[in-house]
Design a protein that fits this description.
The protein is of the alpha/beta class and 307 residues long. The protein has helices at residues 20-31, 50-60, 75-80, 82-99, 126-146, 172-185, 206-219, 236-247, 271-277, 285-298, 300-306, and strands at residues 11-15, 36-38, 64-67, 153-155, 157-159, 190-194, 200-205, 226-228, 233-235, 252-256. It has a 3-stranded parallel beta sheet, covered by helices on one side. α1 links the parallel β1 and β2. 39% of the residues are buried.
């Protein structure tokens, strides 16, 4: 049994801590009494720059690093900028781990952590996925050679208040919320959705994901990767219909089959997180969507200004 890490008296650095997931992680840490949380501003510390990584660690002097910073985007953004996503995510993680010391396209469902290396990642986000996989290899190698206490978590698709709703780079849930709500207001007769609607996805509320990250930080000390998910699988077609209903959109849903579907299915085996540190997602999916829609409506003006 691993002794639980007391976060109350630890200096904790959370890269990406001011972002979508990071804000939830901050709250989860504060709920445990952590009061020395260092959030590096991107403008001050560019984690792609080795000198900035070294300066960050010198300034923060962390006992614990939770690495959330990443270059992310939806299918369209990944297709347009594959080299950027590969380089940025690889360099941020590799240098941070060194200075401190995603799943294949076709694989059994639900995804088990042991299936991580079974085949090449889905093409539209392969550079991003491979960059992230390299951090797992590095984490395990440094643990074995140096005894470096590094754990690797695999969160499924996140959603929740504070998400990125930009049509240029958002993931499917915020993209659909934006499309349907704006179509409702403007009385648009139909909304076009990428793909044929058959792919499935699993989603986890950002607050649940943050709780899992902090629980793992406290209780898990192993080299094996751990899935972080809700255990619920839904097709894009069913998801679109649900979000249309919750936003009050009554027009037609049209599926553009000339656009890529992305990965055919995505659902996780979440038993390792449950067995290793007791995590189970709590947020009801429809209630989580309602919270996210309410956030979009309340912040619509500022969201639209950002584009």
């Amino acid at each position: 049994m691993v002794e639980q890490l007391n976060l109350r008296n630890k200096r904790i650095c959370v890269t990406g801590g001011s972002g979508f997931l990071g804000s939830f992680v901050q709250n989860a840490l504060k709920n445990r009494g952590a009061d020395e949380i260092f959030i590096p501003a991107h403008q001050e510390y560019n984690l792609i720059d080795l000198n900035d990584v070294r300066r960050l660690l010198a300034d923060a002097k962390p006992d614990v690093v939770i690495h959330l910073a990443a270059s992310v985007g939806g299918i369209g953004a990944n297709m347009a900028h594959p080299a950027d996503y590969f380089y940025d995510n690889l360099m941020m993680g590799v240098q941070l781990i060194h200075e401190s010391c995603a799943y294949p396209k076709f694989t059994p469902i639900p995804f088990r952590e042991d299936d991580l290396w079974n085949g090449y990642p889905e093409e539209t986000n392969a550079p991003y996925g491979l960059a992230k996989k390299m951090l797992l290899v590095q984490s395990q190698a440094y643990r074995r050679q140096y005894g470096f206490n590094s754990i690797y978590l695999l969160p499924v698709n996140l959603y929740g208040p504070g998400d990125n709703f930009s049509p240029k780079s958002s993931h499917v849930i915020p993209a659909l919320i934006h499309k349907f709500y704006e179509a409702k207001l403007n009385q648009v007769p139909e909304v076009v959705i990428w793909g044929d609607g058959t792919p499935t996805r699993e989603f986890i509320y950002a607050g649940d994901a943050a709780e899992a990250i902090v629980m793992a930080t406290e209780k898990y000390d192993g080299e094996e990767p751990v899935n972080i998910g809700s255990g619920m699988e839904i097709s894009i077609r069913d998801l679109a219909q649900l979000i249309a209903r919750l936003t009050g959109y009554e027009g037609k849903l049209v599926y553009d089959t000339s656009k890529p579907n992305g990965q055919p299915r995505r659902a996780l085996d979440v038993s390792r997180a449950r067995d290793s540190f007791g995590f189970l997602a709590k947020m009801d999916f429809e209630r989580g969507l309602q919270n996210t829609i309410a956030y979009y409506i309340a912040n619509r003006d500022s969201i639209l200004q950002k584009g």
